[in-house]
Amino acid sequence: MSQWLNQALEQADKIDDWLTPKRAQSLAKLKATPWPSRKTEAWKYTPVNKIERAKFPASTAAKNGAISIPDLDAIELFFVDGIFDQSSSSNSFPSGVSIIQLCDGEQTSWALDGFNHTKPEKHFFGLMNDVLATQGCIIDIEDGAKISQPIRISQSFSLGSQSHTRILVRLGEGSRATIIEHLHGNDLSFNTSFAEYQISDSAYLEHYRLAMQCEDAISMGGCHFKLGHASKLNSNLIGFGSQLSRVDVDIIHTGEHSDAKFNVIYLLDGKEIFDLHSAIEHTVPNGTSEQNVRCIVADHANAIFNGRIHIHRNAQKILAQMNNRNLLMSDNAQVNTKPELEIYADDVRCAHGATMAEIDEKSMYYLQSRGIKRSDAQVMLSFGFINELIDLMDNQAIAHWLKPILKQRFANMEIRK
Amino acid sequence: MLKIDNLQASVAENPIIKGFDLHINEGEVHAIMGPNGAGKSTLSYALTGREDYEITGGSASLDGADLLEMEIEERATAGLFLAFQYPVEIPGVSNMEFLKAAVDAQRSARGEDLYSSSDFLRMAKAACKQVNLPLNFLKRGVNEGFSGGEKKRNEIMQMILLEPKLCILDESDSGLDIDALKVVAEGINSQRDGKRSFLVITHYQRLLDYIKPDFVHVLAEGKIVKSGGPELALELEAEGYSWLESYDRTAADEEL
After folding, report:
1. Chain B within 8 Å of A374 (Cβ-Cβ)?
2. CA B186, CA B189: separation in Å to the nearest integer?
3. What is the pLDDT of residues B119-133, one digit of tens each?
4. Rg of the Cα trace of chain A?
5. Which chain A residues touch B102 with a CB distance below 8 Å?
6. Mind listing the pLDDT tens digit for each residue in A125-180?
7. How far apart are the CA of B248 and the nearest CA of chain A, in angstroms?
8. Which CATH number among 3.50.4.10, 3.40.50.300, 3.40.50.280, 3.40.50.450 corresponds to the domain B2-255?
9. How many angstroms separate the CA of residue A384 from the nearest CA in chain B?
């Protein structure tokens, strides 16, 4: 076991709080789990050894501020290097919303049961987050509350920081909310950030995870959703790669007539890595799920998408779709995509597809024939490929803010053929 | 304005255009008719520089500038416009963004001032109305989910905004009902200003009822086999192309 992990475990042993019963279980599992390597199937393309090799400098005084999203007008929760920054956060909330810090979790009746209620145990760094996360927040949306103001949890990570945060969310019956997890910071840092969402019957969650840590950052995280009867999830993930970025998403349908949409945009450059493992689980009949994953990968970057759909034996009449499209901008760019379908019911419709494409020459010719330069047409077409998913976002403030950022990031990518 | 001499073009090493000659002067409307497989679309692709359409001989120039030496976008900037038979759908790129990019690209390449966004929006709305498309078509993806007729009208809208010198209309009438045909024809006629020239490629006389050509040419086997005035189109409509092919064979026999 690595020196780095030993230190983490020693630190975990010292934590004693309301989550101790849960932490103890995870700690036992963590100690029994081997450090992931390329031989571990779930980490085959993800060089976890970068964590051990990383020389984390002492955390500096210079901290990143929050990034503002114009016109978002959100309830803001800001964490710097995993520590809640009260002064930069909202301190009053609309009625129907309760937000407390993780350390005050004892005040919330469902919090202890909600911890690891949605997140599966399979994720090594999820276990690590179980034992080490002492910061984060607990969000409760009352039954029937329709909260139009989005809630944004911003996390910035600065040089040398190592942090672990946990977010627990419960949407009451028939409630509605928009929650944004926004992670940023490009310097060498390490963080695990996991969020668990319980979406009660007839509730609707609009969710964004803006995984925008780049360059030297190391980020391990997950978003885990449990859907009740007739509930809806509309989740969007933006993945900028870094030297090591991994997100696990689990969407578990536990009530009938629930619907999940999950749209993902990857935009990777340099030697960045972004690894998404998604698992959609239909445990009951009459559910729908749709996943669209689009990657643009340039230079020596590496996109990994492992998409699993699991339909249980009695889960009839399921419509599940998974689509992964990739655009390679250079000969050295890499995409590792693997659909995994496990279907035990016999009356379901399940479609999946993965394509690897270069720019469509017919579209290119069309644009050029109107006087647009090939290089500009390339930007328009590639951007169009991901723009389709941005246009599907419900929140216009996020869509407007994202478009130029993604466009700029894309324009800076070099085409190397 | 457009001078094409002895043009030869191949697709996948199959010669399709085999010695094509055509001169179009300022303000003239020429129609090219011909049976399937005569090389009509190949001609329009070869002139606009589409990949895989290889020029193997001859010359083509627009206002004295050698078209065949130019990149695709340079030909457009020089004033050449092709209204496609099958316009492509480009989801994710809005029609408005596309139109602005195209007009900006051409104007800046010609060293002209760019329109402000608000001026351009006004022009685009007017053009959109002119071809009878709802204004939300400006916001939609380029041709995305448009019907056949809507795609053709979108082509004419682009032509109106790009103000080319020479327009090639590749079967702009195909797949149109009578009402849509009128809209397309009116759009085209509105751009006839005595200076702009047109090359209208069509199978049928029908379009030419609305867009009166000055000259009609019959393309067969990759070259013009007959030229005449508007009456030639009527002749073809009445007699079809089989007559033409037999005429062709007889002519070939006589030469021997």
Report:
1. yes
2. 5
3. 999 999 999 999 999
4. 21
5. 367, 370-372
6. 999 999 999 999 999 999 999 999 999 999 999 999 999 999 999 999 999 999 99
7. 35
8. 3.40.50.300
9. 4
